[in-house]
Specification:
Two copies of one chain form a homodimer.
Chain A lengths: L1 E6 L2 E6 L9 E10 L2 H7 L17 E9 L11 E5 L8 E5 L4 E2 L6 H5 L2 H14 L7 E5 L4 H12 L3 E5 L6 H6 L4 E3 L10 E6 L6 H6 L1 E9 L8 E5 H7 L2 E4 L7 H14 L1 H5 L7 E6 L3 H10 L5 E5 L2
Parallel strand pairs in A: 8-9, 8-11, 9-10, 11-12, 12-14, 15-16
Antiparallel strand pairs in A: 1-2, 3-4, 3-6, 3-16, 4-5, 5-7
Helix pairs in contact in A: 3-4, 3-8
Chain lengths: 315, 315
């Protein structure tokens, strides 16, 4: 099979042996695979794939058709349309998916959207609901709301009956983010006076934290899942944390053990995939590129200013 | 009645009108009232009493006998031995206590211990269990473990089957803290290599936070309830928070609404008071002072290096 391959901190398309599904695994003929910030970090050598995933083939999410199943697979069969997060190796013609991580793709959802769904929507769902406890009537602030995870977060929070304030750096994208269900779209540096917020989804990083804490409601939760734009270091005033009884937490999805990823998948499958199926939420795809043009796709990802995902497709 | 009274950032004993219990309130003849750091802050003008509490009489906890009850009080009657946190006004011969905040004092527990129980044990119980989720087998780090809240925290965590590491600045107190059930007692600056800890009870402040995060286990929780020793400002590395899926939170008890204090009281009454009754935990009283010597008691409190509580007693 052909696959995007990391060679000396660059990507190329190279030929690899076809993988074979072991017990409990699906072999998936990949039809689409989203690009994520972690892929870029992996290419640069900062974020190695977890054990058991291909070390030199990036890609943390995919959609496609089941090409074969390993022993002990009961929920899926050859030909089923599936999507999943994986530890790596998604940007290839074939990829292995543990059955517990696979979700069925709703009938009306095309593969490119499905290939950009898992990472963004599982991350956003886990951060907002499992970690942040978002519920009806909460005021939710989503930073970096035009990106993949951000646009998923705006839609999921709005669908849950929250009042969403979205911060977006690029003002050309404000109208589009408002159409996702944000009650209010503001500049990246114009949120601190807009509170009080019950939950903050932090996708930018440390530079936002003082404003987040200032704008936080009593018992508010700040969930940090990205620091690429604003840095990892930040100054916190603990008396504010105490006075507001604030919670600051954060996570990554990729580093978690399989059983945890399976739980995140099952929760999103129950609560987010039905919204995808009925059109309440959608995967914003800024642009698709054929797998063989992966280098151009990565370049476009790096440029930023996107509305949603950059997705590789396999014709 | 006589009461400790704040006069121009000093304390004196002054005469006040006897308070009268309104609906749902107990009038308590105070027998003992612990001194807390917040009292000192209030005397200095930094921490005003919440609305409805006497502005000029400090004291956030007490024990005593019910002297009279207001309309609609059903759980307590005249003569009952009670203890409670209050919004203020405890350091007086008489004090008002909302019935929902009162706990019965176990038979064998003398008033001075009971008067130093509520603030420390409710704070420690809420922080460790309700906020921190401490459970059997957890590794728990308690900073400032020789103080009132710290010594309560060590005992409660140990009683819950946790493995407790206690940090104590004053090495003369190490043996005493070990006897409270700490598996390990270390210097205040010698904890960062002792992890991984599942829960950190932070009573010192910002200067500990880098070490706390470094020593934290995956999914660990840092609960900040005091910053007097180490300052409020601290630098946090958000990538560590994300990688460990850490939770940083904090609280104060006094600022909470009555219904919240009542819930904290009922949880501690159910889970901590029985341990006090059967001797599994005890209130460490470093020294008692008669109410009329409150100024000397406050001075002793300020000196630090205490094992447990400074308690005012009313003969």
């Amino acid at each position: 099979m052909k696959a995007v391959t990391i060679v000396e901190s660059q990507i190329e398309i190279r030929e690899h042996p076809d993988p074979e599904p072991a017990k409990g695994e699906l072999l998936v003929r990949v039809r689409a695979a989203g690009i994520n910030a972690a892929d870029l970090m992996q290419v640069q050598g900062f974020y190695p794939a977890p054990p058991g995933s291909p070390a030199d083939i990036p890609g943390m999410e995919l959609s496609g058709e089941v090409a074969a199943v390993g022993e002990g697979v009961f929920e899926f069969k050859e030909g089923d349309r599936v999507m999943a997060i994986v530890g790596g190796g998604a940007q290839a013609e074939l990829a292995l998916v543990p059955e517990r991580l696979a979700m069925g793709v709703p009938d009306d959802v095309p593969f490119p959207e499905a290939g950009g769904f898992p990472e963004a929507f599982l991350t956003a769902h886990d951060a907002l609901f499992t970690q942040g406890g978002v519920t009806i009537g909460d005021r939710v602030l989503v930073h970096g709301a035009a990106g993949g995870v951000g646009s998923a977060g705006v839609q999921l929070a709005a669908a849950a009956g929250a009042h969403v304030t979205a911060s977006v750096r690029n003002d050309r994208l404000w109208d589009a983010v408002a159409r996702l269900g944000a009650a209010e779209v503001v500049a990246h540096d114009d949120f601190a006076e807009r509170g009080p917020f019950d939950v903050v989804l932090e996708l930018v990083g440390g530079s936002n934290m003082a404003g987040n804490l200032a704008a936080l409601n009593r018992l508010g939760r700040i969930v940090v899942i990205g620091v690429a734009g604003g840095g990892a270091q930040t100054d916190i005033d603990l008396l504010t944390v105490m006075g507001k009884r604030a919670v600051i937490t954060g996570s990554t999805l990729r580093a978690r053990p399989l059983e945890d990823k399976a739980l995140v998948t099952k929760r999103a499958e129950a609560h987010a995939v039905p919204l995808l199926a009925n059109g309440s939420v959608r995967v914003l795809v800024e642009q698709t590129f054929p797998l063989k043009e992966a280098a151009a796709a990565y370049e476009r990802f790096r440029e930023g200013g996107k509305l949603g995902k950059i997705v590789l497709v396999v014709p």
